[in-house]
Amino acid sequence: MLNVPGHPDLKKIVILNPKGGSGKSTLATNLAGMLASRKQPVALMDCDTQGSSLRWLRKREAERPEVHGIAACEHDTTLTRSYQLRVPAEIRYLVVDTPAALPVHELVQFTRGAHAILVPVLPSDIDIHAATDLVSGLLLVAKVSRRMGRLGVVANRVRENTVSYRRLKRFLDRLSIATVCQLRDSQNYLHAAEQGIGVHEMQPSRVAKDLDQWGPLIDWLALRLETPLTARDLLKPEGERKSQADNVHYLADLLADRAARAGD
Ligand SMILES: Nc1ncnc2c1ncn2[C@@H]1O[C@H](COP(=O)(O)OP(=O)(O)OP(=O)(O)O)[C@@H](O)[C@H]1O
Ligand SMILES: [Mg+2]
Strand ranges (DSSP E) for 122-188? Predict the structure, then answer.
């Protein structure tokens, strides 16, 4: 169980989507870079054995505003687990990058106590199909329906006005899942990753379009991070009956949507 030893002032942003290559690490590292560039004390926790986020961090020059790295996937036998996952007291934001192929029952431990859960989805048929499974897993197992407002999708590598993108949007609208923002397919993300920075730390004239697209994401996050956690967010058992009813309601919509798409 990955219980992040935090403190009351810590805001946790979890990036997840078991579908590989959807943009989790890109989103996590850019968020961490953005917060650091705004002088916010931020930690980036890499839970993936591939270690993409930590690799990004190693490329980051020492002069850059600090992002504190937490290697949740590396098991150092000389340290206790809780020491390894320790979030220093001065840190205010924790960005969690999660691995691909995460089984549904493990989603719970990542979403517990999260102020915001961000799911990057690529607008391809395969990715949208996988996102349907993810959403049903989140509803049934991680009981996210009770805190739907904390869940947002980032449509990543979007080419607007494509059929796939419109389909993704329709699917999310039906389930009342916020499409927080769209990020275009841009070489800027590759260049930023090579230098261990985020697009917010690049020459503004070069990334103007990208920064515009981040605007709605930053606004959405600000509201979630300001909203105090409740027993629901900590997945305390009260309200179980209602949550089951909510889940059934959402699943019915989900299945109807799938059936409609199958008939497209
Ligand atoms: N908006 C974007 N524009 C251009 N390239 C992107 C964008 N988002 C992600 N990429 C690229 O797509 C590839 C996969 O992205 P990323 O590693 O962030 O996905 P992931 O979900 O973390 O993958 P994994 O599941 O393997 O951990 C990377 O090479 C990344 O640079
Ligand atoms: Mg990754």
Answer: 151-158, 178-184
